[in-house]
Amino acid sequence: MNEQMVDFLKTKMSIEEVSGSSLTVKGIIYPPINKSVSEIKKFFSQTEYTPLFREEKGVHIIRFGIFRKPGAKPKYGMNILLFIATILSTILAGSLNSGGNPFTNLSDLLLGIPFSASIMAILTCHELGHYFVSRREGMMTSLPYFIPMPLHFIGTFGAIIRMKSIVPSRRALLRVGMAGPVAGFLVALPISVLGIYLSEIAVAPEAEGVLRLGDSLLFWLLARLIHADIPHGYDLFLHPVAFAGWLGLFVTSMNLIPIGQLDGGHVTFSLFLRKRRLLYIPIFAAMIGLGMLWLGWYVWILLAAFIARRDPVIQDTVTPLTTRQKIYALIPLVILILTFVPQPFVI
Q1: Which H helix or E strand runs over 201?
Q2: How many Cβ atoms from other residues are within 10 Å of residue 326's Cβ?
Q3: 332/182 Cα distance (integer angstroms)
Q4: What distance in Å separates the CA atoms of residue 91 and residue 85, rounded to the nearest whole number?
Q5: What are phi and psi of 189, to 5 degrees?
Q6: Concatenated DSSP letters for 31-91?
Q7: Of 30, 35, 144, 309, which sits most exposed with the smallest number of CB within 10 A?
Q8: What is the pLDDT of residues 101-157, one digit of tens each?
Q9: CATH of the structural domain 3-65, one choice from 3.90.1070, 2.60.40, 3.90.1150, 3.40.1350
């Protein structure tokens, strides 16, 4: 970092220390902080350096890094191939779940289309929510990579997107973290309503070993509103569209658990930064307790312990969220409360 860069920084902050070896500057950024930070970003965008802002004990620290620029124009062949493969695997799963056997009767694949179309709509909108908002925030992001899972009763393990650049601000992390669950929820809700309407009421099986799905608060309310009178000894048998809606809401709630690189983890990090780790003790304690209802929670404990080790890399952590943005952060919390299923699967 040369003398001209230091002279520019002196116009935006009161410098206390400059470390040339670690490319770090310490001091107090002049208010309004968001304006000064924006101007520093703009100045250094014309150089090879990228400033990273943080605050420690009331002192602002700017560390300059050299990040690799995006390479050649991305190729989408793999994204398209995996998307088509996931459509096929969810059609297969839907067909088998509906009692079809496409291995002996190919036309039985038609039975899987309602489930596949519904679950793919939810997953696609979830991931595209992340994609479009991250691009709007100036981030380099890949299109979704869907994960097909043939011969599985769901047919997919969801999808992921790859972040190819750092997150520019806490506001950007909040918006990107919220976008996927909110988009997926808004699609899963009408799909659930339609699916529950199409579902049938029949005599409940008395045999043990029958898989039953647990209820979230929202799904329970929808079922009671649409099918108000279910006689004793009868139960609601979900239509494939309803099953896809249930799965969409369930996946949404799991993504909103406020840990690590999950969507809920991104939202809480934008609010509390590293202090979010204080939430981990009650969250892990609750998951241990829930493990008495569903053993799968113990698997989630192991997964959560792994993903909780990493924090997102945010360029600007010194510009605080506005009151309005903090209120927006309540939306994922409300969705989590409505869609959370303490005991997802009951045998």
Answers
A1: strand 200-203
A2: 13
A3: 7
A4: 10
A5: -65, -55
A6: SSHHHHHHHHHHHHTTSS-EEEEEEETTEEEEEEE--PPP-SPP--HHHHHHHHHHHHHHH
A7: 309
A8: 999 999 999 999 999 999 999 999 999 999 999 999 989 889 999 999 987 889 999
A9: 3.90.1070
